[in-house]
Amino acid sequence: MSLATAQPEVMPAGVDRTANRAVVPNAVLGMLIFAVAEVMFFVGLISAFTISRSGAMPGTWPMPGQPMLPKDATLVNTVALVLSGFVLLGAQVAWAKKRPVAKWLVVAAWVLGAAFVALQGREWAQLLAAGLTLTSSRLGAFFYLIVGMHGLHAIAALGGLAVAAAQLLRGTMKGGLFFGVQVFWYFVVLMWPIIYARVYF
Amino acid sequence: MSTAAHADHGHDHAHAHHEPGFVEKYLWSTDHKMIAMQYLFTGMAMALVGGFTVYAFRMQLAFPGMSVPGYGRVTATDYNALVTTHGSVMIFWVAMPVLIAALGNYLIPLMIGCDDMVFPRLNRLSYQLFLISAIILVASFYVPGGAFGGAWTSYPPLSAKAEYSLTGLGSSMWLFAVALEFAAFLLGGINFVTTVMNSRAPGMKMFDVPIVVWMIIIASILFMASVGPLIAGAIMLMFDQQLGTGFFDPAKGGDPVLWQHLFWFFGHPEVYVVLLPAMGIVAEIITVFSRKKLFAYKTVLYTAIGTGVLSFFVWAHHQFIAGIDPRMANVFSVTTLLISIPVAEMVFVYIGTLYGGSIRLTTPMLWALAFIAEFLLGGVTGIFLGASGADIYFHDTYFVVAHFHYTFFPIAFIGSFAAITYWFPKMFGKMMNETWGKVHFWGTIIPFNFIFIPLFLLGIRGDHRRIYDYRHFPDLMKAGMQDLRILATISLLVLLAFQVVFLVNFFVSLFRGPKAPMNPWNANTLEWQAPSPPPHGNFPQGLPNVYRGPYEYSHPDRKDDYWPQTEPASEPAKT
Amino acid sequence: MTALSLLACAVCGAGQDNTEWAYLAMTGVVSLSPLAMIGGVAFWLYRASKARDAELASGAAPAKDPS
């Protein structure tokens, strides 16, 4: 808007007005809208799970003879993921203040996130060995579907975070990508406690 | 089917020749106008597929057992596949790409005065995903078992297991195509909202944005907020089909009604997703051709937002006979009747805009007026279906079919024809032939009513909609019922024949039409300040500044009866 | 699998309190969460654009023509 102070009839071509008009960065807004759609995806899955579970006959949830979900062991994963979210928030604060520690905080957040995914993988292997499969019961089907979808999002977000970390380490980061990746990572982090509380208990 | 599939390719080639460059460049462009054209031509090609399928199955209904010219004998399985494909194609591959994707991509950057979308490569990816989804859908006709035949709503358990649907691969391809298409529109919607928020021309305040842009934005937000549960349901259904889980299969403890909830939670907002852009198109056209300011701009905007909010609370009216809690049915009856209020209000506002204006009956204006009249009929019959008591009688009869065609046909076709005839000079730099445009208009509107009024009458007499051959149902062959079916089918043939007029007019005008001036309709909005057709970057003389709202027609302070948004007030000398 | 189909019953929960509660609660969650999220984002954008306009107005003359 400030460019219009001279009241020209038309703007000179090639002037970047996007930066002038942008209320919030494009990457943040775009990713935020995407995250809203993604949250609705998980809301759909969780509501289906809740309704399906409530309609089960008494004593058939979980199916007799099927392993229980390891809710205590998964607490460790949960703590790792939530911690990673806070570390990334710290990285943003440090980056805004132009502190060099920001890049190492992003790396730390990535390591914590990767630890979450690795622990989830180990848990899946144990459950599969114990006989909980996709077709063994509806609990199994929903467990692998919901937790698997969250895991896929976590892996995708880790990929984005890795690119952001590499750009920060090389000093080529301008901001847009970092903000977008952050929004997506917070979505992954915030979605998990809800899934954990709904599916494991 | 093969003829329609070939016609599909024919269009792509015709378009590739007319645009400078090669097919690769055509498919890989990031220019919003090119992507809009890609969506438009793909949508038109898919409309031919949808039109061909309806031709085949309507012939079977009117003349059961006959060998349909161009198709052959329609078997029961074919019939199911044709009906399913007709519904899916017309909603997901015609209404959505033309009204939201093509017009959104074309109009948003031009109307808000910027050079392109903020994420152009995401935009290109959006079209590519959409094209793949369309190809998968058409290809499903040629796999063993044929295309999916479980209706566009794809209710399990019929759709969940190959043993029931008999189209194992076809069902999965249908589902995959639909999910992919939603991913494409998700990317498009993110682009639309971000672009309008961040790239408006200097001086363009929120209330200077043309209504059609607002409508596309509200529709995109509605789409993105409602599509998640359906994608979740689609993945669950895919697991049921391919991996043997039992989310929706009652034989494994699943709940088939759950799919209906997930589907209609998206499915009903989807109606408003396509309705709102059509309403926006009509708003633009009636203001230009009645030379009057849009009556109550802010009311239209808030009404559209209200419609969007309410549309999240109406979905269960599709399930009144699915065994849902009757108390919930009451609630959803009330919300369904309530949502007719904002829509009626919008129609009222449009009539208020027309009142006292100097109306010019050009082809786009005729389409816009027809939209209001025909959509009104669809809306009024919706009241009967929204009341749960009446719906129990009408459910799954041709009354429902006629009702939603009276809403969807105005949206998908009347709205699109209005938009194409109105923006054709800008899109292609040529004028369309008005006389042939009017011939096409009357040749479409009159048969349209002769198709669906008989279906209303049939529906009231209890004609069930999912029947392949009525000769097996003597109760539905009573006095005159078959005559009404034949009348509907003959009218359909007339309607389809008149679409040839449109296609010929479209392509002849495209290549041989008179050159269009920059602003042939004397309209105010920014796209008319760009050359016709706009070059890459849209505004070669520089991006515009905005000084006023989009609907300043017949302003008393000005000699001209229009006042472009880019013109400052500092020229009262003209009066 | 055999045990599963023996125990399968899609409608056995119908009418139970917890089933009805689940349907009603999930109807509420699914309908209200998109509105809450969109409302939140829209409000945040509104605040941000107000702040941006105020910032611009203090630094520069308004672009809007006074008419």
**Classification by helices and strands of chain A:** mainly alpha
Task: Specify the helix fraction band of chain A.
Answer: over 70%
How many helices of chain A does DSSP assign?
A: 6
Shape of chain B: globular
Q: What can be said about the biggest beta sheet of chain B?
A: 2 strands, antiparallel
Radius of gyration of chain B, Cα only, in angstroms?
A: 23 Å
* Count of individual helical segments of chain B: 16
The two chains with the largest interface, and their residue counts, are:
A-B, 47 and 54 residues
Walkthrough of the structure:
- The complex is a heterotrimer of chains A (201), B (575) and C (67).
- The model of chain A is unreliable at 1-20 (pLDDT under 50).
- In chain A, α2 (26-54) runs parallel beside α6 (176-199).
- Chain A is mainly alpha-helical and 201 residues long.
- Chain A has one domain (25-199): Four Helix Bundle (Hemerythrin (Met), subunit A) (Up-down Bundle).
- Chain A is built from six helices and no strands.
- Chain B is mainly alpha-helical and 575 residues long.
- Chain B has a domain at 517-575.
- Chain B has 16 helices and two strands.
- Chain B has a two-stranded antiparallel ribbon.
- In chain B, α9 (256-290) runs parallel beside α11 (326-354).
- Chain B is globular and about 75 Å long.
- The model of chain B is unreliable at 1-19 (pLDDT under 50).
- Chain C is mainly α and 67 residues long.
- Chain C contains two helices and no strands.
- Chain C starts with a helix and ends in an 8-residue tail after the last helix.
- Classes of the chains: A mainly alpha (201), B mainly alpha (575), C mainly alpha (67).
- Chains A and B meet through α1, α2 and α5 of A and α7, α8 and α9 of B.
